[in-house]
Amino acid sequence: MTTAALPVARPSRRGSAPVIGVLALQGDVREHLAVLATLGAEPVTVRRPAELGAVDGLVVPGGESTTMVKLAHRFGLLEPLRTALRGGLPAYGSCAGMIMLADRILDAPADQQTIGGLDVTVRRNAFGRQVDSFESVVELAGVPGGPLHAVFIRAPWVEQAGSGVEVLGRVVGGPADGRIVAVRQGRLVATSFHPELTGDTRVHALFVDLVRAARDDDAEGADHGPGDRGGRP
Ligand code: GLN
Predict the structure, then answer these.
(1) CA angle at residue 5 from 90 to 75, to 5 degrees?
(2) Is the residue at 8 inside a domain?
(3) pLDDT tens digit sequence for 19-69
(4) Which atom of ligand 1 is found nearest the CA of 28?
(5) Global confidence as pTM
(6) Residue whose CA is closest, atom 1 of ligand 1?
(7) How far apart are the CA of 49 and the centre of ligand 1, in A?
(8) Does 12 fall in a domain?
(9) C-beta of residue 32 within 8 angstroms of C-beta of residue 61
């Protein structure tokens, strides 16, 4: 099998800056682009299926998931997004992006679809509808530098995580103490909070590292031919 047979043909440019797309239908796109640029990635906006084929990783920003998914459907992006993620495209979702990546959602309109891929149940506006935004400390596994100061805006939390999902972060203290707010499953990462708004680049750095590793794994797999696909699930 060659890379041409993959659902999404991604360029293999080992060593160069990873191209990371930000789904630019709605939400805080600019903030993610800015953080990615400081980390040595090449950020680009993604609005069309063809643009999706040219990225090494994808950020699904915070915003409003009901609007974002409607626009993804209207732009003919929803199925290509699902295909890309199933094909191993790394993705990171923050807040509404976490909802978009979840396989199951609660407190959502009955017909609200998601891209899916993460084996989690996510509750929308979980911290209480009246709580517009708040800040809290989150302990993040595998992220050096101590607990992270997190900003939550009408945020979801992960109500239930499947056995293949690694819990990366929980709220420390307050009424939501212990709630899961950061997860990883293979090449998919999601946080309930918005690291793109705080100047703390550690979550994005983790994702950029993941994207680089995934690209190298895929290049290895392509070099070695059938039966060796690197880290691709
Ligand atoms: N409550 C929003 C939603 O359901 C998410 C809020 C956010 O991304 N800040 O999509």
Answers:
(1) 55
(2) no
(3) 999 999 999 999 999 999 999 999 999 999 999 999 999 999 999 999 999
(4) 8
(5) 0.90
(6) 154
(7) 24
(8) no
(9) yes
